[in-house]
Amino acid sequence: MTFVPHTERDRQQMLEAIGVKTIADLFEAVPQKFRFPKLNLPAPLTEMEALGELKGIAEANESADDLVSFLGAGAYHHYIPAGVDSILRRGEYYTAYTPYQPEISQGTLQAIFEYQSLIVALTGMEVSNASHYDGATALAEAVNMSHAIHRGARNKIILSPGIHPQYRAVVHTYEDGGDLQLIGEDLDLSAGPDALIELIDEHTALVCVAYPDFFGRVYDYTKLAEAAHAKGALLAVSVNPTALGLLKPPGEMGADIVTGEGQPLGIPLSFGGPYLGILTTRNQYVRQIAGRLVGETVDSRGQRGFVLTLSTREQHIKREKASSNICTNQGLMMLAATTYMSLLGKSGLRQVAESCYHKAHYAATEIAKLKGFGLKFKDAFFHEFVVECPIPAAELNLRLLELGIVGGYALGAEYPGMQNCMLLTVTELNSKEEIDYLVETLAEVAHA
Amino acid sequence: MNYPADLKYTKNDEWVRVEGDSATVGVSDYAQDQLSDIVYVDFSAAAGAKVAQGATFAGVESVKAAADIYMPVDGEVVEVNGALAQTPEAINSDPYGAAWLAKIKLTNPAQLDALMDAAAYEAYCKERSA
Hints:
The complex is a heterodimer.
Chain A: H1 8-18, H2 32-35, H3 47-59, E1 68-69, H4 82-88, H5 91-94, H6 106-123, E2 127-128, H7 135-149, E3 156-159, H8 165-175, E4 181-183, H9 193-197, E5 204-211, H10 222-230, E6 234-239, E7 257-261, E8 277-281, E9 294-298, E10 304-308, H11 331-368, E11 374-375, E12 384-388, H12 393-402, E13 405-406, E14 409-410, E15 421-425, H13 432-446
Parallel strand pairs in A: 1-13, 3-4, 3-5, 5-6, 6-7
Antiparallel strand pairs in A: 2-8, 7-8, 9-10, 11-12, 12-15, 14-15
Helix pairs in contact in A: 4-11, 6-11, 7-8, 11-13
Chain B: E1 8-9, E2 14-19, E3 22-27, H1 29-35, E4 38-43, E5 50-51, E6 56-62, E7 66-70, E8 75-80, H2 90-93, E9 102-106, H3 118-129
Antiparallel strand pairs in B: 1-2, 2-3, 3-9, 4-6, 5-8, 6-7, 8-9
């Protein structure tokens, strides 16, 4: 059976319509010698041989499970309960893209509705969309939202230097060529949120901060929210959702938009994607939020059901007038996060967050005792912290790797002058033995 | 379809009711019928704003479309109909009355002469429905 829908007759008719004789005539512009070049490929393999070869390639890779890892910086190694994968792999979910005839997919819509409800509870906000691409693009959408909310009348966006450098780069990409001015990234890294307050004026549309920030630091942004609102500006907070199991949600600090990277909620590291964008706001800004929203309703027989809600925000109705034309979502990753949060519950999420917090603080305390090592910042932190090392961090990482340890993120690449600084992450997966091994090894290799 | 004789109309289906040097602006019966059930109205101009002829001052969303509403003539906004935020469906039921959109002070009344009267507008609507 062929899956090519065109018959020979169809093809002849099409060729006649455009006035050529054969399909090859369409490629005349390509010089003969380039049409079928001889490719230098190995001989064909049987399935058994191919599997063996691929296995060999895969085994050359060392994953976070094979090594002792203290690397985070935006992508986190957490335990994922087996239930997450077994729900994800159900055919009804696994094959589904964001539904185009949505109401027929009640299961998918219910999952999205549950996801939105969970994220709203976690962030302390009022509305969540059905999810977005990742933490970086969700933050960029927050910037676009604030521009739309102010009807383009305000063009200044304050970006805290404590936001993940790659997120800031994505915001720059989104806004390239537009009339928005992005400021604040060159502030002193030790200055904290008060330095941002001084930049807010009547042209400011949005202030963006991270919670915890890229360096793991935790600030109360209540004063910042008040200062922004006093000048008519909005506050967006980019979160790590794991931290919200323990910390005060940004909704309670007065945030107007909360975005975040949902990867820590049951999504594997997987070489950096696919991940999950969290995007939430207040009810009053619901018409400017990007993406899809699912609402609960009753059908003609009075039975509970789910529908796409406020679709006029989206491209299929608003088109060029919409504040964002993205109306896809990360369906499968959204389902993973929903399953993860449901399985853990409020107390489970808190336990994960507490475990991360206490283990990270134990590690920080022990490392700070080592000769030549010290903590770069004095602020409160969650599960990441910056260590100043006696030698360049990149060099130190090479030595650690030889002994089976993936060290922290070497900050010198993004922050000139921080060549000796390393951003270390500790999660619930790092045992006390692993932390002690890291501390001993650091002491050993740093002075080798 | 209703085309009140005392109003002036634009090609974009707004109407203007002139009262001395002021005017009231809204969208026509034809416009609400084309849009179908209107579910949302918002205003991009507030009292005191000077809006030029052809500039957007409001937007409406229906269950099947979103439309910008343009100012028919130059004017300074005196008041917008904020009550429509709660009752956008009034545009469907009473487009020439309760669902007025803005009251303006005319700053260039000569522009009114170029707008359509009711008969011309009715012909223009019928031509598009044909």
